[in-house]
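Structure in, sequence out. Go:
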């Protein structure tokens, strides 16, 4: 019975399939790992790479910012974007095109949305946890630790800073330990995250190292500046709240409220209107 229902109403099956794919893709982009054979990923990468360069660059950058990084990550993403729409389009002989074609388009552009949302979420986590991490770095520097040892110490405290910032600090410390120049390591940190606050912090640390300024003072100044910036963003969001609430208030809440308030009076009026108007006409 269930198989016949799926055959008669395949849109439910296809919608469930698309939802499962996006759920799995979201899990993959936020920590899990998926590996596919090379003979599957290489053709998909070739097809995606043939698309406009601006789009391919944005896709690779967003995937990097989302934290989904490995040698096969772009191949897996390309395979998801190419093979799933092809699989859905192969069902055109069995399912209505009005159902299959939109799902194929969603399955092609859906991963882009998932990657972009994860990248934005990860950047926000880094920005929100950065002032606290800078305060801890100030304490470590005041206690006598060097900058490299401070980064390793903060990265080891997984319960204090956000997971995303913890991973980036670990990568930064590992790059410095492997011999990468500190200035280049900071540039790679910004390239991996796309967070402007980290770029400003890197520039300040480079300037303090060149000019011999106090690192603790620079870190404290950056922490205060970031807190002020986060406070200003919160005030901007609060100021935009009345404008954002205007549409649901006038088009959703007010009509329902008017119906609740005026419906009894209107019902009573229309029930009594014929007799009232009839009496006035007779007189």
């Amino acid at each position: 019975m269930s198989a016949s229902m799926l055959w008669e109403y395949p849109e439910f099956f296809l919608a469930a399939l698309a939802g499962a794919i996006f759920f799995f893709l979201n899990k993959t982009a936020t920590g899990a790992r998926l590996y596919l054979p090379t003979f599957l990923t290489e053709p998909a990468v070739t097809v995606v790479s043939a698309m406009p360069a601006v789009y391919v660059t944005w896709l690779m950058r967003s995937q990097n910012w989302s934290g989904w990084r490995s040698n096969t990550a772009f191949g897996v993403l390309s395979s998801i974007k190419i093979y799933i729409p092809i699989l859905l389009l192969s069902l055109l002989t069995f399912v209505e095109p009005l159902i299959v074609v939109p799902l194929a388009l969603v399955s092609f552009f859906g991963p882009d949305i998932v990657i972009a949302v994860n990248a934005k979420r990860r950047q926000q986590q880094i920005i929100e946890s950065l002032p606290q991490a800078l305060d801890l770095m100030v304490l470590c520097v005041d206690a006598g630790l060097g900058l490299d040892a401070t980064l390793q110490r903060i990265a080891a405290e997984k319960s204090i800073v956000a997971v995303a910032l913890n991973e980036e600090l670990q990568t930064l410390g590992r790059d410095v330990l492997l011999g990468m120049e500190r200035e280049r390591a900071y540039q790679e940190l910004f390239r991996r995250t796309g967070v402007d606050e980290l770029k400003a912090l890197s520039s300040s640390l480079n300037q303090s190292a060149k000019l011999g300024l106090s690192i603790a003072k620079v870190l404290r100044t950056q922490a205060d500046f970031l807190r002020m910036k986060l406070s200003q963003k919160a005030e901007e969001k609060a100021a935009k709240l009345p404008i954002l609430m205007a549409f649901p208030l006038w088009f959703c809440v007010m009509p329902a409220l008017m119906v609740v308030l005026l419906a009894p009076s209107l019902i009573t009026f229309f029930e009594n209107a014929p007799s009232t108007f009839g009496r006035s006409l007779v007189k």
